[in-house]
């Protein structure tokens, strides 16, 4: 296989730099420590680059790693021979890290190298101007080869630290951050964690004992949700993986640990829902259900999320991070077979989860309402009528009663029972006269019966509802969910008073 | 299947099964707004004899009515969601002010805003335009079908009713479906125009195609704009076009009574393309 032209040019440039002083296993270990250091957070912190890729280059005098965000499943992060690296991995701009020389002074290595900037939309590499970096690598008695200091001459136009302070060994730094978090210095700890590479964190987490696990889990949770607007950007996903692993450790700590873990799964599922990241929410909820298969609160959190996914799609917030139209970013989805299957799957998942919640708590009114609505959406009108019809008799709050009447009206419309539908909508309006959708539904049903003047009157009532009045239907449609922030704050305060 | 038949079928297909819509008795006379265009320009000076109108296939005797005899009922349906924010907002304000300034005596204009809430703002004078536009609060929800339904149902009988929807075409929060909008369009006397702003490179909302068919059934059409800057000229062109339209009146004879009626309007002894309502529902 021939080398892609862009990559070839980069390699030519790399080959022109000082030759490697040696190329044995020890050199590779030192280089691997550097690459580990470069990965993920280290890169994105040093340079404000929206997409950053470190391409694999492995040839005499230069080699590197493949990483992409997100990394294609077929190309796991690792070291590759240059010819197998598909240049298509670089979709916007690429950065190749090469390492030239490894100089040894006893057991300390100075790894010299740099970054080449590739413009990979253009097959030609334009002005590959490398920066120059030197990494000091030392062998830690427990953690193997680690970077302890570095110096960088940044690329033109890029700001970045010129030199680091001598580094504490990663595990020590990591656990000192956890301690700071436990002492209540949460923001500082999260910022400190942001400055660590994922490789460093992984090494630290491999370091026994993993205590205090719950505190460390919350540190990673806060880091994961520290994107704009409290979102969890994909590039922080590994922090939730770490948090999950730590929660599993915490779960072994008796009843308190179990309770902490259960509430953590509920809170992060709600948080993912609140920030409109359905994919993330699904992943967390699924893991939570594996750990707590009978928990109704978790089933409800996941079920609500599936219902919202049916309305808006699996990822409706994080789409805003990609260059799609604003409308699509808000969750508007064009119809397609794939979308129809996606909706069907989400609704069936929601049905299963609400049924599970009802199985655990027969008096769960919200589960009954939502199950009824899901059955209506799936076309099971008898099932929907049965569930929804029992809601008003359970003395629910006005918003829930209103929604039950509204959905019952729709069931009647689907059954071509317009007088019954009108009656149901009238009951909805009686319960919540300040909510516009009830009046609108009544108008639309009256219009179908031919009562045009009455339909107009109902519409005027809809227009006269108070400005800004919260319509439970709108909240329901837009995926309203209990507050996740309060639950996360309670967990934080438990581990970090 | 005729276009009207298609529309009626579509209206019934979305939520099965539904009973047929029935309407109470009302005015016998039917008014039809007709625009006649030739090479994109309005054809003027036509007489009643130049029009041949069939109601359910039966030729009717039509008369031309001076447009001034019926007061105007203009409803501007404005998407106040974040998706239509932009630099053209001032253009919209200017266009709406110009439209309001040309209203006569009994004419009526209303801004129906939809996003967070469905709200109606009477546009009596330019200051009212400013107040109405200032009250628009961008929000991430868009209930376009709800707003169209409301505008069509609220359109006043006995007036030349025109609904102009300024939107990007996306909808994520409506209660009513397309079939309800189609029913409301048939039962209403309003001409519906859609002005759809789609940013360069963005995909047009898939619902636009269906809404376009509904607009064309009412004698209106789809106008495409790049953003709010393009919306304002379209609004002005629609209102300006009303001056050159013909208002036809007839009393249905020789046709069955209540229910859906198909209108087929053609030119006779004149050249041009006719845009007019293609059907209506005769009340019981």
Structure, described:
The complex is a heterodimer of chains A (497) and B (284). Chain A has 21 helices and 8 strands. Chain A has 497 residues and is of the alpha+beta class. In chain A, the strands form 3 sheets. Chain A has a 4-stranded antiparallel beta sheet with strand order 5-6-7-8. Chain A has a two-stranded antiparallel sheet with strand order 1-2. In chain A, strand 1 and strand 2 form a beta hairpin. The longest helix of chain A has 24 residues, at 337-360. In chain B, the strands form 3 sheets. In chain B, strands 8-7-6-9-10-11 form a 6-stranded mixed beta sheet, with helices on both faces. Chain B starts with a helix and ends with a strand. The chains are: A alpha+beta (497), B alpha/beta (284).
What labels would you give this structure?
heterodimer; A: 497 residues; alpha+beta; 4-stranded antiparallel beta sheet; two-stranded antiparallel sheet; 21 helices; 8 strands; 53% helix; 10% strand; disordered N terminus; B: 284 residues; alpha/beta; 5-stranded antiparallel beta sheet; 29% strand
Q: Which parts of chain A are unreliable, with pLDDT below 50 for 5 consecutive residues or more?
A: 1-23, 40-94, 117-129, 155-163, 315-333
The counted number of beta strands of chain B is 15
Reported for the largest beta sheet of chain A, the result is:
4 strands, antiparallel
User: Low-confidence spans of chain B: pLDDT under 50, at least 5 residues?
Assistant: 1-27
Q: How are the strands of the biggest sheet of chain B laid out side by side?
A: 8-7-6-9-10-11
Biggest sheet strand line-up of chain A:
5-6-7-8
At a glance:
The complex is a heterodimer of chains A (497) and B (284). Chain A is an alpha+beta fold.
Topology:
The complex is a heterodimer of chains A (497) and B (284).
Chain A: H1 5-15, H2 25-38, H3 41-46, E1 58-59, E2 62-63, E3 65-66, E4 78-79, E5 94-105, E6 108-118, E7 132-140, E8 144-153, H4 170-182, H5 186-194, H6 198-205, H7 213-224, H8 237-251, H9 254-274, H10 278-291, H11 296-312, H12 326-329, H13 337-360, H14 365-378, H15 381-389, H16 398-414, H17 418-431, H18 436-449, H19 452-463, H20 472-477, H21 485-495
Helix pairs in contact in A: 4-5, 4-6, 5-7, 7-8, 8-9, 9-10, 9-11, 9-21, 10-11, 11-13, 13-14, 14-15, 14-16, 15-16, 16-17, 17-18, 18-19
Chain B: H1 3-13, E1 30-38, E2 41-42, E3 51-55, E4 58-60, E5 63-65, E6 72-79, H2 89-101, E7 108-114, E8 118-122, H3 126-134, H4 144-154, E9 160-167, H5 178-187, E10 191-197, H6 208-217, E11 222-225, H7 228-243, E12 246-250, E13 259-267, E14 273-276, E15 279-282
Helix pairs in contact in B: 1-5, 2-3, 2-7, 4-5, 5-6
């Amino acid at each position: 296989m021939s080398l892609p032209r862009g990559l070839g040019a980069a390699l030519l440039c790399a080959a022109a730099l000082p030759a490697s002083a040696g190329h044995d296993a020890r050199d590779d270990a030192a280089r691997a420590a550097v690459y580990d250091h470069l990965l993920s957070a280290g890169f994105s912190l040093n340079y404000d680059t929206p997409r950053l890729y470190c391409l694999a280059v492995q040839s005499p005098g230069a080699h590197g790693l493949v990483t992409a965000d997100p990394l294609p499943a077929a190309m796991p992060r690792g070291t590759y021979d240059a010819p197998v690296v598909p240049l298509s991995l670089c979709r916007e701009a690429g950065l190749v890290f090469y390492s030239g020389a490894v100089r040894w002074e006893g057991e300390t290595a100075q790894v010299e190298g740099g970054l080449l900037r590739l413009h990979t939309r253009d097959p030609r590499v334009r002005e590959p101007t490398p920066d120059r970096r030197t990494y000091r690598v030392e062998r830690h008695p427990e953690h193997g080869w680690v970077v302890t200091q570095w110096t960088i001459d940044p690329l033109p136009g890029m700001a970045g630290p010129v030199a680091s302070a001598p580094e504490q060994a990663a595990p020590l730094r990591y656990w000192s951050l956890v301690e700071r978090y436990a002492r209540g210095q949460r923001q500082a700890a999260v910022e400190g964690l942001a400055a660590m590479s994922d490789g460093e964190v992984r090494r630290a987490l491999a370091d026994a004992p993993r205590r205090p696990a719950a505190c460390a889990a919350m540190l990673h949770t806060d880091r994961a949700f520290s994107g704009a607007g409290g979102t969890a950007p994909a590039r922080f996903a590994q922090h939730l993986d770490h948090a999950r692993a730590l929660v599993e450790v915490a779960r072994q700590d008796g009843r308190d640990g179990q309770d902490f873990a259960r509430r953590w799964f509920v809170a992060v599922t709600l948080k993912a829902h609140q920030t409109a990241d359905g994919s993330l929410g699904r992943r967390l909820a699924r893991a939570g259900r594996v750990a707590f298969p009978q928990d109704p609160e978790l089933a409800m959190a996941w079920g609500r999320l599936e219902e919202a996914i049916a309305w808006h799609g699996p990822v409706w917030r994080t789409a805003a991070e990609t260059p799609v139209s604003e409308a699509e970013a808000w969750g508007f989805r064009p119809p397609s077979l794939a979308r129809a299957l996606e909706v069907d799957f989400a609704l069936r998942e929601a049905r299963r989860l609400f049924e599970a919640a009802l199985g655990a708590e027969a008096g769960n009114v919200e589960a009954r309402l939502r199950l009824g609505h899901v059955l209506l959406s799936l076309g099971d009108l008898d099932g929907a009528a049965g569930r929804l019809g029992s809601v008003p008799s359970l003395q629910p709050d006005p918003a829930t009663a209103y929604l039950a009447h509204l959905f019952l009206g729709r069931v009647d419309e689907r059954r071509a029972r317009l007088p019954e539908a009108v009656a149901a909508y009238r009951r909805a309006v009686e319960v919540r006269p300040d909510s516009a959708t009830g009046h609108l539904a009544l108008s639309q049903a009256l219009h179908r019966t031919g009562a045009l003047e009455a339909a107009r009157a109902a519409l005027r009532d809809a227009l006269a509802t108070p400005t800004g009045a919260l319509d439970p239907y709108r909240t329901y449609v837009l995926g309203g969910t209990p507050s996740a922030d309060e639950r996360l704050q309670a967990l934080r305060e438990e581990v970090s008073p | 299947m005729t276009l009207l038949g298609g529309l009626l079928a579509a209206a019934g297909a979305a939520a099965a099964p539904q009973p047929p819509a029935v309407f109470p008795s009302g005015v016998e006379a039917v008014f039809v707004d007709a625009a006649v265009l030739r090479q994109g320009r309005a054809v003027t000076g036509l007489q009643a004899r130049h029009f041949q109108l069939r109601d359910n296939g039966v030729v009717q005797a039509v008369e031309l009515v001076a447009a001034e005899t019926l007061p105007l009922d203009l409803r501007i349906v404005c998407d106040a969601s974040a998706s239509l924010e932009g630099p053209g907002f001032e253009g919209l304000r200017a266009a709406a002010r110009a439209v309001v300034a040309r209203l006569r005596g009994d004419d009526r204009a209303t801004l129906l805003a939809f996003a967070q809430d469905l709200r109606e703002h009477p546009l009596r004078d330019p200051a009212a335009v400013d107040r109405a536009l200032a009250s628009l609060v961008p929000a991430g929800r868009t209930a376009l079908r709800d707003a169209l339904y409301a505008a069509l149902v609220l359109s006043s009988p006995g007036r030349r009713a025109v609904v102009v929807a300024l939107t990007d075409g996306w909808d994520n929060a409506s209660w009513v479906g397309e079939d309800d909008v189609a029913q409301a369009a048939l039962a209403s006397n309003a001409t519906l125009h859609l002005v759809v702003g789609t940013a360069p490179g963005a995909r047009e909302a898939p619902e636009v195609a269906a809404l376009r068919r509904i607009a064309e059934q009412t004698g209106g059409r789809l106008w495409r704009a790049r953003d709010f800057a393009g919306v304002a000229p379209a609004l002005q062109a629609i209102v300006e076009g009303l001056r050159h339209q013909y208002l036809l009146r007839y009393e249905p004879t020789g046709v069955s009574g209540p229910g859906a009626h198909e209108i087929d309007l053609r030119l006779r002894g004149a050249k041009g393309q006719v845009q007019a309502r293609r059907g209506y529902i005769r009340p019981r």
